[in-house]
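RETRY 2/3 - previous attempt timed out on the joint model. Re-submitting the same 230-residue input unchanged.
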Amino acid sequence: MIVKKYHEVEKTNVIEEGAQDVSIRWLIGKDSHAPHFYLRHFEIEPGGYTPYHAHPWEHEVFVLEGSAQINTKNESIPLEKGSFALVMPGEEHQFENTGDTTFKFLCAIPETGKK
Amino acid sequence: MIVKKYHEVEKTNVIEEGAQDVSIRWLIGKDSHAPHFYLRHFEIEPGGYTPYHAHPWEHEVFVLEGSAQINTKNESIPLEKGSFALVMPGEEHQFENTGDTTFKFLCAIPETGKK
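RETRY 2/3 succeeded.
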């Protein structure tokens, strides 16, 4: 069993192309030996965004703080504290902070996804 | 893609033996066709607790509000907003509200777990 506080986990900048002012904490990652899926904590600063992209694994997202939108092929959908999302494999998506505070969210991915 | 707010999802009481004042929302469940894992939102009222038990699937937990403890075979570990936990398959555990407000947390389980 692992029990910790999220801020005890090291935060690193996401340097992937197309990402702006995004950081990540791997709360439950490969090192945890979690059998099926991993849990990450993201922060996007005001004006920041994740890459607009698609990949063959899903996201399960829950918004903790701030406001943003998820940009998809056809629309932009607002997100606020208490919003959740399922992004299916292959769906194009981008998270974009639309507020003036840090946007914080959880994003879980399957063990078969990006390491 | 599914985007919703958690309070839009129906909340039902957990009537499992050993549960006291616990309710659940299946944010991302079987109906969502999520490929690998599901996301649930739990509330435990003051004085309430989940069953003390073990099962062959893991939990990945993130605390949203309130204070509680996770009771295990050997100890009780405090939980507060921003705490997270990985409960491995087979580990005995119970979530118990130790505060005077509703304890709210997310709990993700693999698709192979309890439906």
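The interface with chain A takes residues 1-7, 27-28, 32-37, 39, 58, 60, 62, 64, 70, 72, 77, 79-80, 82-89, 91, 93, 106, 108, 110-112 of chain B (CB under 8 Å). Closing ticket.
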